[in-house]
Each structure stands twice: as structure tokens, then as C-alpha cells.
């Protein structure tokens, strides 16, 4: 029998009276239901119920319900446009006030902090340009081909060692050590397979030679420490709160030996602007012990989620081999030259003193007015040649299935590779991946990944001509060029600036008017000839004395008002600005009809389908490119619980029909 009636009934689960309600908590629930991973990284992992409600923009139908019935269609459309503009202006203002003091926001938009950051980035670009020029003078650039077959040469290039401040001995050691990379392993396996296919019988007669004796990479029985090209180890930080500064992370990491630097990616809007980080250490330290100790460190009540970051397994990655076709290579050369000229101008490289004057007076092509020696004498390679008359007479110039022989122009490819290498080393642009790595200099691998041309199309895809040359479909080539141009222009070339009217509509303020408003707000009339300055608490005879007092004694406050006004102006003027999440019903309907996506909007470019790294990083490609290894995989499904009633499968349900069943007749 139990110690008491309450304990007895709690254990037995039986009621003394029929139909009595059991008010005791359900004791059947197990502890593991509460000890789940959702509370491991507090305060990142929170349910959607704990979040602040997402602002909702009314649909046109709901907006009309708030208006008078006598409103005309034109008035309704005009008022709804004003409502949407006011809604966006308020959201931008609230987001600015919420994040203006955070370090990541100041580095992007504050006039002083962003200026210092741009100066550091330009210094890094000049250093990279010097390294590229040295390699170019040594002849290393001309020997390099951006093809997958040249993956070992691309990996062994000494850019990373020189960026890390290595010596000639370090470069010699790099070239002599064995390459441990999946891209090289693929090529080695391919060559071994060819050798085994051609000489299988002879090798069996000779007893079978080991194909790995020539230095190929294999899985050895002895576990060897994987060497990194830059001789460093690094720790990946999964959760860095937006209010944590770089200095605070450096202070926590400097306690450990071998610390080199900290790199932070751009905030992730889908995770409440939490960031990912990388801490780089020297190779000769015990990285596991440092990671263990770093996991016990909490900064501003935030668990950083430190894990040992794996090195990039495949540094050289291939794209479609159609990029080696002459017509595609001509288009790539045109786009690469334009990119080089744009980013040279952005970073102040190869710019003459009267460059801006010439540009204002003559609207010339950005490549034509560039002083970069790599962009000179490209006209001969960009002129397209075609047998238009012959094709017209034969009637083969049109048609969806028109095929042309695959052509590779080595001279054209050589000029293209030179510019692609320049973009990758100097400007951190992975051309064939149409992506930029803006924070590469603070990352563990300062030149970690590159996309190159893959193997040419095989003859089995489109066939061969009478001379045995591989054919390619002209429509496929045209579509490939159009798609590549669209992606490269959207990701790297689309720079739109708002006009004065648009900035005013988004809430831009005049600097001097804001200063006047600040002075007026600090002039409080208590009585006749008696005024109070709330900022200092002093009393004056008139507002003109308060103005003089603020100008002479509190000039730094007025400067702060000016800086904050410029701060917001820079934020509003950027096309890819970060904004808070809000529900846009029009966008929700379009995304729902498209079969995916949430109901959040993070930036104006994101709403138009543009997504970068943002760090994104971004973020997107940037995180995977530098050893993220999907530590943050799961995204919203792990860190944020769905606001719906459960997970929904986007696939269509499979339906079955009995073919032998008789037809229903109604």
C-alpha cells in the first residue's frame, strides 16, 4: 500500500471516484523528451512561439476593408501603394535602430567603421596584386591552365604560402610534399583505370605492379596527420551572436597557444542574424584540447558551438566541359574582362588621375578605358567568325537540333585563363562559380577553392561529324551562355543605386535638419526667460544660449547625430541591405505556387531571387567553400521549429489505379 492516498493513486493510476478528473501531471513522459538537442545552444535554439511576432503586410483585399466604401479604384491603388511604402519605411527604421550599434552592422554601413574596413580590404588587394605580379613575372601564370587535368598544378601554386608570409623554403616544401586532395585522387584513379584497361594482361604476367608507387594518394593503413596547404589548424564556431564583437572572440582565443586570427562570416537572417566564425591556429598546437576548452567559454551568455573544422577535401572543382568550346570561351573572356575592369575600378587599381574626368565626358566601355595590361589587345579574340552564307544556302543555319563541331582555341583559352587567375588571386572571385569570397583574407584558407573547366563533351552525347569531330548542339551552347551571363551579372555585376526620390521615400533625413531637430529637442521652455537643456541639466535665459552651449560644450553629440544620419543614409542607399523579416502576402502566394520558400524577406535582392554569401557569405556558397562541412545543416529545421502543424512533404502523393477495374458510368 502507498504511503498516502495521493501517492497511491498517483502510482496506480486508479481513481477513487468514477469519472474523477486526474489533475496530476502525466508521469509517463520520459526525461529524454525534455533533454533534447533543442536546448543545447541557448539562446539560439528557440521555438517560433518564443520569437517576436513577424510584422504582417495587409493584402489589398484586407486593406480595402479598412477604407471607406465610396473609395474609387484609383484612390485605393494609390493609398495601398502609400501603405506599402510606409510599411517598408517603418520596418527599415526599426531594423536600423535594433542593429545600428552591433559591430557587423557598423562595419557594413557606419561611415568610419566601414571606411576602416574598406581600407583594410584595399590593403589586402594590393598585397594580392603584388603576389600575382611576382608569379606572373616568374612565368607561373602562363604555365597554368584552368582545366581539371591541371588540378595538381593549381593546388601546388604558392599563392597560399605567400599570403601566409611563407619563405622560399616553405614553397619548396609545399611542392615536394604529397598532395592529399580528392580532385587529384580522381585524376589518379582515372589514369590508373586507363593503365589497367590497356595493360591488364601484361601486368598479370609480370605479377602486378602497384600503380600507387608513382606517388598517388591512397588510403594508408597508418593514420597520418592530414597536412594543410597553409600549415594551419582551425576551429569552426557555429553560433556567434550578433552582439558579440570580434575583439571579444579574440580575447577568448588569445589565451590558447598558436592563435593567429579570427574570421566571421556575414550574419544569417534566417537564424536571427547569428554568424559563423573560424578561428585559425598554428599547426603545431593541440587543436582538440583547444576546441574542448573553447567549448566551455560563453560570451554574453552565448555558447559558440566550437568544433574542429575539417580542411577542404576538394580544392579544385569542375564545371561543365562545354566551357572549353570556342564560342563559350569568347563569351567568358568578354565577361571576365568586364569583371576585372569593374573590380579594378572598385578597388582603385590601374586607375589614372584623369580617369573620372574622361569617364564623365565620354561614356566608354569599362574594358576599353581600363589600364590593366591583362585587358589589352583582346579584340582579336572577341571577334566571332561564322559561315553564315554557307549555312544559309544549305538551310542549316536555323533549327533546334542544329549541331556544330566542338572547337577549342588554345590562344583564346590562354588569355582567358590569365584573367580568371587574376580574378581568383587578386579579387577573390571564383569565375566559373560566379561567386565572390569577400572575407577570404581572414579565413583559414586564404585561397581555398577554385572551379575549373571539366572534361569536354563526349561524342556519345551529340555524336560526331564525318571527320570524327565531336558535335555539340548549338541550342545547348546558346542556352548555356545565356544562363551563365544571367548568373554572373546578377551575382557580381548588378549594382543599382537609388535616386533621391526613392531615398526620401525610404526615410532618408537631411544631416543639418537632424542637427536642428536635436538642438530643438534640447530646448525646453520652463517659464518666461527660463529654458532647460535636458542634455546637461543646466538652465538658460533663451534657446540661443542653449544652441551656443551645445555647439561649444557638446560638439561630440552633434557629431554623433551627423554620423548616425550618414549611417542610415549609407544603409538605405545599399541595394542589398539587410532588413527584418516580415510577411508579404503577395510574395507568399508566389512562393507557395512555386512550391517552396518561407514567408520571410531579408533584403531587396533576396526578394528578387538574388542570394549570395552572404556570407552570405555570405553565407551560401561561402560557408561550404571554406570547410563548413554542413555543421549548420538542418538550418531552420534544427534551430527553428516550424510554425505550422508539422513537416510537410513537398512531393506529390502517389496515386494508384486498378487498370483492370471497370469504368464508372454515371
Automatic annotation (TrEMBL):
The lineage of its organism: Eukaryota, Metazoa, Ecdysozoa, Nematoda, Chromadorea. It is found in: Nucleus. PANTHER family: ARSENITE-RESISTANCE PROTEIN 2, SERRATE RNA EFFECTOR MOLECULE HOMOLOG. Residues 473-577 form the SERRATE/Ars2 C-terminal domain. GO terms for biological process: primary miRNA processing. One of its GO terms (cellular component) is nuclear body. Residues 7-22, 195-208, 646-660 have a biased composition (Basic and acidic residues). Residues 1-22, 195-225, 587-666 are annotated as: Disordered. Pfam families: ARS2, SERRATE_Ars2_N. Residues 61-168 form the SERRATE/Ars2 N-terminal domain. Residues 620-629 have a biased composition (Low complexity). InterPro entries: SE/Ars2, SERRATE/Ars2_C, SERRATE/Ars2_N. Keywords: Nucleus. It comes from Brugia malayi. Belongs to the ARS2 family. This is Serrate RNA effector molecule homolog.
